[in-house]
Amino acid sequence: MDIEVPEGLNPALTALGWLVGRWEGTGNGTDHEGNDFEFEQRIEFSHNGSDYLYYASQTFLLGDDGAEAEPLGVETGFWRPKADASLEVVLASADGWTEVLLGKIAVTRIDLLTDAVVRTESAQVSHASGQRLYGKVEGDLMYALDRSTAEHALRPHMWARLKRV
Known about the structure:
Layout: E1 21-30, E2 36-46, E3 53-62, E4 68-81, E5 86-93, E6 97-106, E7 109-119, E8 127-137, E9 140-149, E10 155-164
Antiparallel strand pairs: 1-2, 1-10, 2-3, 3-4, 4-5, 5-6, 6-7, 7-8, 8-9, 9-10
Domain THAP4-like heme-binding: 13-164
InterPro entries: Calycin, Nb(III)_bact/plant, Nitrobindin, THAP4-like_heme-bd
Enzyme class: isomerase
């Protein structure tokens, strides 16, 4: 198994140790109106000795030339594993919503489902629920994020393959 335990990691985080570090790459998506797009993403999972991982993600829309065209989104949050391999994730988005996801850790695969979403009055998208799948494949971080809004049922939203940097 390809399990990594970074130095100084709280033992409660051992199951998530493989996530720790910086990841970068490109992905594809479909926005809430059904338009396809390509993006670049930077994710960092870090720890401070406590029993949670700190998560920060930035995405940038890519132009036709493949260069960053404009900021697309920012998320930050906390990943809190439990002894029974369950996981609680709390995320806040610059787009005006906060989401709580619950899930399971299966070695280098993580499945998450929305438990609750709270949106601000000015939220850019009426995000209602989601599911996420994260996994380590050939040393890369791959994920798929499905989302529902007030306007549409759960459907694919973003997916990417990121490399550790």
